[in-house]
Amino acid sequence: MDISNIIEQLNMTNYSLYFSQPLPIFIYLLIAFVAFRIPYVRGYLSLFHHLLHGMIKGIFERRLLNKSNGITIKKRRLASLKDTISIYAAYSGVSLAIVGLFYLIANQSFQFILLLFLVLVLLSVSQWIRRITSILWVLSFGTLLALPIYFNEPIVVMHLSIFLSSYLFVHSTFHALQLCTQSLLNRKDREVSGFLTRLKWIPSLLLGLILFSQSLLIGFFIETTILSFL
């Protein structure tokens, strides 16, 4: 009986030692990809990406684009241009945030990452207070972030912070790819009457390609520059 207890304690010790260190980053990315492919999990976790994207887009539109006053004939073109610029600015802002998160991961500031997530979730209360589902998400996701910090579980904090950062990168990359495919599908479904109308899908496709290429470059930069000394 004593020998079995000793063996069990040794196994638990080895288990704790193994998970006390970060796993290879591709494992977190793989888990994030699997989570992204599960509809309910994607719907739950993707709300944070939408929150961050919406906040950056809203700030950009209010600060830089709200003073644009075009002629009545050009209002539609101006609105389309503003949407394109604000979408690109929001994606770029999310990409910079992802770079910052992985920089914190490389410096092992795992608890600070969860605190940043928690602050953004709390800030979202002022924006989503009208919808009961959003309030429930804020409460549940905020609890998920706060519990490991409150109970002082550094291993959980470490793995959770790396996973959430990886998921944010995976979601941003596939969202940009989805923009490309969606523009192609809209081109096929849209009823067109002329050559110029037929070309309206091209800006959306180019924007999607730019954002997808930007995500790949950021992933390459993170892997070769930031995580090389992790």
From TrEMBL:
<feature type="transmembrane region" description="Helical">
    <location>
        <begin position="157"/>
        <end position="180"/>
    </location>
</feature>
<feature type="transmembrane region" description="Helical">
    <location>
        <begin position="201"/>
        <end position="222"/>
    </location>
</feature>
<keyword id="KW-0472">Membrane</keyword>
<feature type="transmembrane region" description="Helical">
    <location>
        <begin position="112"/>
        <end position="129"/>
    </location>
</feature>
<feature type="transmembrane region" description="Helical">
    <location>
        <begin position="85"/>
        <end position="106"/>
    </location>
</feature>
<feature type="transmembrane region" description="Helical">
    <location>
        <begin position="134"/>
        <end position="151"/>
    </location>
</feature>
<protein>
    <recommendedName>
        <fullName>M50 family metallopeptidase</fullName>
    </recommendedName>
</protein>
<feature type="transmembrane region" description="Helical">
    <location>
        <begin position="25"/>
        <end position="45"/>
    </location>
</feature>
<keyword id="KW-0812">Transmembrane</keyword>
<keyword id="KW-1133">Transmembrane helix</keyword>
